[in-house]
Write a structure and sequence with these properties.
438 residues, alpha+beta, D-Maltodextrin-Binding Protein, domain 2, 2 domains, seven-stranded mixed β-sheet, three-stranded antiparallel β-sheet, 14 helices, 13% strand, signal, Extracellular solute-binding protein, SBP, TAT_signal
């Protein structure tokens, strides 16, 4: 059975797959002494892993050294890693599962766990991993990889989202970039007014960014879905406040009108006003402090602050999201697959993988072996503890985006009121909740 291992999207061109066989000797993090492999009669088990690219050659750069250490500790397990292209990855996995040809393991994304469960592709791991195996994870990292209390894909990397400021633009607007802080919506609105006077944008909001809308709702102290997933809160005040803010920012001209899109297909090719130095704040990922400045050396990148509607509400920075190792439900080598997953989620392996792949590790001890750029480490330290997970992040993610996007567009363009848009969304979403959760 062929298994793919998944890697990160950030640093590369997404191209064709590469297969790597990992019957190698120890090379990276220290592993237990290998058993005597001279016994020609040793019975071996082969597992297949699908991964997704983070570097120009993940097979050699990431997985060969990681699997050298694994094979030294477990010479009876042979690991074949196939680096797949990002495009169409979910559909390819579903098709492979339907044909009985799914890998044993693949690198899954947090936002699609419910779909994997519905399609019967993913194996629950509660009975296969111990508390010691998971000791280095934060509670939110476990929540993000679980559904209804069952863990499906222990994370290996995180995408830590937060807020960045353009220090050069702030200076021109009369702020000191070293002390400027925009943590409440009123403070943000005041900045938007000043930015508009210079024909600059405050930030960027896409009507098809479901994650962005969830963050705005949580900044308002709300939650879109009830804990039991039987109802939605689209007509509750925090959700109304969130969409009202979006409408205000679009209608005031504080965000680019081009981002009021009506379909997923329209997301490509939109202008990047942040990198063209025409946008004062932006929601960015952890390594952007390096990547953005490399893309435009004139950008004065300042690490910003998490937000809330007002000071009475706990600020949030973003959603716990990332990649994790998942075992397919049709694997015929579950014991060997679990052994590999347990090895790869050890803190030293998580940290080592992050160094090799140029990503951000989850957990605590893993960061002791992680060597990021100083600004990336500061970004993760500031925003990581303020990420949230839970029912909103693993309920009807793709469906919510498709249903809500056109209604958000109608509201920000003045074609529907906030209440009308949210009523339409609630009507459609509640039908889906009933179908999915009863």
């Amino acid at each position: 059975m062929k298994q793919p291992v998944l890697s990160r999207r950030k640093f590369l061109q997404l191209t064709a797959g590469v297969t790597v066989s990992s019957a190698l000797a120890a090379c990276v993090a220290p592993a237990a002494p290998a058993a005597d492999s001279g016994d020609a009669g040793m019975e071996t088990t082969t597992i297949d892993v699908w991964a997704y690219p983070r570097t120009e050659n993940d097979g050699d750069i990431v997985y060969a050294p990681l699997n050298e250490g694994f094979h030294a500790a477990h010479p009876d397990i042979m690991v074949q890693v196939e680096v797949q292209p990002w495009g169409g990855r979910r559909e390819k996995l579903y098709a492979a599962a339907a044909a009985g040809e799914a890998p044993d393991i693949w690198d899954a994304t947090t936002d699609t766990v419910p779909a994997y469960i519905t399609k019967g592709v993913i194996l629950g791991l509660d009975d296969l991993l111990t508390a010691d195996d998971l000791a280095d994870y934060h509670a939110a990292e476990i929540d993000a990889a679980s559904l209804d209390g069952v863990l499906y894909m222990p994370l290996i990397e995180a995408e830590v989202n937060g807020i960045a400021y353009n220090g050069g633009l702030l200076s021109e607007l009369g702020y000191d970039p070293a002390t400027a802080s925009f943590q409440t919506w009123d403070e943000l609105y005041a900045l938007g007014e000043r930015a508009a006077e210079q024909n600059w944008y405050l930030e960027s909001l896409s009507t098809f960014s479901w994650g962005g809308f969830l963050v705005t709702v949580h900044e308002a102290g709300g939650q879109v879905y009830t804990d039991d997933r039987t109802d939605s809160n689209f007509l509750e005040q925090p959700v109304i406040d969130a969409l009202t803010r979006w409408v205000k920012e679009f209608q005031e001209g504080w965000v680019p009108l081009e981002y009021a899109i009506g379909s997923v297909d329209e997301q490509g090719g939109l202008p990047d006003y942040w990198l063209s130095l025409e946008q004062v704040t932006a929601r960015r990922e952890d390594a952007a402090c390096v990547q953005d400045v490399e893309a435009n050396p004139d950008l004065e990148y300042v690490i910003g602050h998490a937000r809330s509607m007002d000071s009475s509400i706990t600020a949030v920075s973003g959603i716990v999201s990332g990649q994790g190792w998942a075992i397919t439900s049709q694997s015929d080598a579950v014991d060997a697959a679990v052994t590999w997953v347990k090895y790869m989620i050890m803190p030293e392996q998580v940290g080592t993988r992050a160094n090799l792949a140029g990503t951000t590790p989850v957990g605590n001890k893993s960061k002791e072996v992680w060597n990021p750029a100083p600004c990336t480490a500061e970004y993760v330290d500031r925003f990581g503890p303020l990420l949230f997970a839970g029912v909103d992040t693993n309920t009807l993610w793709q469906e919510s985006k498709v249903v809500a996007g056109p209604q958000f567009q109608a509201a920000v363009l003045g074609q529907a009121t906030v209440e009308e848009a949210l009523e339409t969304i609630k009507t459609e979403i509640d039908v889906l909740l009933l179908e999915q959760y009863g």
